[in-house]
């Protein structure tokens, strides 16, 4: 392994993350909420090891090998999540485990929380929670990929380890750094549009910016305990629905739609088309059940609430206007199940990704056809393009690793004290980076034991980094020369 190169990269990431503390520090000074010294302390504490790592790695000019990329990403996410807990310890007065859980939940865009009484928190701490999700949404690793060439280190292995989806070799532009820059331009542009829309719909400027950060990142943190339900505004809900969907669509598709000045690009993409049809079908089913069960007496509120909650869950955002865990029939479990599907590859959403589920379904149908035509050659296609067997193997491997990891973590969560339903939804909402669950974790993880919170935090990282980035580090072969 290239130890000096790894240290240098991690050092630059720590330095970069420490500078993000300047934003809540400035907000603290603006609102005079007394938290400026806490964010200044956090900045220094995070900056110092970054400078040390960068100094020890000085002079490194080697590119990264594949396993170096996995190690850097794992160290980065684990390390940043740990140091990101410091403002919660100082400003929100949380214990270490609770602060770590909150930081991991924010950085992985999960949105699960242990905090109640959000309105009583200082504005700067509230904004810090939101910006954690925004930076985690696209991934500071991708931002780093745009910077690494400037310091003489290539970043392709980081991009492959961090980017969601099974076809990670593809790039929007020939140069990787330019690809990362394009992704961030699109990301920032959509966020700004979302903030302006929220503000025009009646939010205060602070709430508009704060919620845009957690909407586009599909994170789901809010500045109010009631989430978006606090605003009691159908217009705000409609805006949130639109931008949650935008966050869950492959950002390369957004880029192509902008470059070609055509919305037809979205319908031409097979994954986006499948995703939108799937969401529409679930919304229709949920609306009918809510109406016929008497949960709502007319169709409009049934359709409104079903649309918002279904989109919030399937995009793994986790915003709430109602408590869907109390909905009738099988709807609560159905919503947890659709979180496994998640959004599109190349988006900020969690879950297994629509593209994988789509490919898995095609592979299942192919096996059925083979029973009828054993000698037939039946390629799996995606948008008219034949997928390589290596891609199909990676999809199957991911699914197997996902299921096995889920089972093990759920058993551990039950051992930590949760009942079966709560343990199932706690791991589902953590691995899928969703936030709200069922049972004891329907609204908060505050009642979960410290052991359970640590298990959930690990599950969040596992889901955010798409299983293999973490699991590969646990294999003896990874550490052999």
TrEMBL record:
It comes from the Bacteria. It is a multi-pass membrane protein. Keywords: Cell inner membrane, Cell membrane, Ion transport, Membrane, Metal-binding, Potassium, Potassium transport, Transmembrane, Transmembrane helix, Transport. GO terms for molecular function: metal ion binding; potassium:chloride symporter activity. K(+) binds at residues 109-110, 219, 317, 433-434. It is found in: Cell inner membrane. It holds the Pfam family TrkH. The keyword RNA-binding does not apply. GO terms for cellular component: plasma membrane. InterPro entries: Cat_transpt, TrkH. The chain crosses the membrane at residues 12-31, 37-57, 69-90, 134-159, 180-201, 238-258, 270-290, 330-355, 395-416, 454-479. Belongs to the TrkH potassium transport family. NCBIfam families: 2a38. Low-affinity potassium transport system. Interacts with Trk system potassium uptake protein TrkA. This is Trk system potassium uptake protein.
């Amino acid at each position: 392994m290239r130890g000096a190169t790894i240290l240098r990269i991690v050092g630059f990431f720590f330095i970069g993350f420490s500078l993000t503390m300047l934003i809540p520090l400035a907000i603290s000074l603006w609102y005079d909420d007394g938290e400026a010294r806490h964010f200044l302390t956090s900045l220094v504490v995070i900056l110092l090891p970054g400078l040390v790592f960068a100094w020890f790695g000085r002079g490194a000019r080697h590119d990264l090998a594949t396993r170096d990329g996995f190690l850097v990403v794992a160290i980065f996410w684990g390390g940043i999540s740990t140091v990101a807990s410091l403002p919660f310890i100082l400003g929100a007065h949380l214990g270490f485990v609770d602060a770590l859980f909150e930081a991991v939940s924010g950085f992985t865009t999960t949105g699960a929380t242990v905090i109640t009484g959000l309105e009583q928190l200082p504005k700067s701490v509230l904004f810090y929670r939101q910006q954690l999700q925004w930076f985690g949404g696209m991934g500071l690793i991708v931002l780093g990929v745009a910077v690494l060439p400037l310091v003489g280190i290539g970043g392709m292995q980081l991009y492959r380890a961090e980017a969601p989806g099974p076809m990670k070799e593809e790039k929007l532009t020939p140069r990787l750094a330019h690809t990362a820059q394009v992704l961030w331009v699109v990301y920032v542009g959509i966020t700004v549009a979302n903030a302006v829309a929220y503000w025009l719909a009646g939010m205060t400027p602070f709430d508009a910016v704060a919620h845009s950060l957690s909407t586009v990142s599909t994170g789901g943190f809010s500045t109010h305990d009631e989430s978006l339900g606090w605003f009691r505004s159908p217009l705000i809900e409609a805006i949130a629905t639109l931008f949650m969907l935008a966050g869950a669509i492959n950002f390369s598709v957004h880029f192509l739609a902008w470059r070609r000045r055509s919305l037809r690009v979205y319908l031409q993409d097979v994954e986006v088309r499948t995703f939108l049809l799937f969401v529409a079908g679930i919304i229709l089913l949920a609306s009918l059940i809510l109406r016929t069960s008497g949960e709502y007496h007319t169709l409009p509120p049934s359709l409104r609430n079903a649309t918002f909650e279904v989109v919030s869950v399937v995009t793994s955002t986790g915003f709430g206007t109602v408590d869907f865990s109390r909905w009738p029939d099988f709807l609560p479990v159905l919503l947890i199940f659709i979180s496994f599907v998640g959004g599109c590859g190349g988006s900020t959403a969690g879950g297994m990704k629509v593209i994988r589920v789509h490919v898995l379904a095609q592979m299942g149908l192919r096996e059925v056809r083979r029973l009828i035509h054993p000698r037939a050659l039946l390629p799996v296609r995606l948008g008219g393009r034949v997928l390589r067997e290596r891609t199909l193997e990676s999809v199957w491997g991911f699914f197997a690793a996902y299921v096995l990891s889920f089972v093990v973590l759920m058993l551990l969560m039950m051992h930590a004290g949760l009942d079966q339903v709560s343990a199932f939804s706690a791991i589902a909402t953590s691995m899928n980076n969703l936030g709200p669950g069922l049972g004891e974790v329907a609204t908060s993880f505050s009642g979960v034991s410290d052991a359970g919170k640590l298990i959930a935090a690990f599950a969040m990282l596992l889901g955010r980094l798409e299983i293999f980035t973490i699991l590969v580090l646990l294999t003896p072969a990874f550490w052999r020369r």
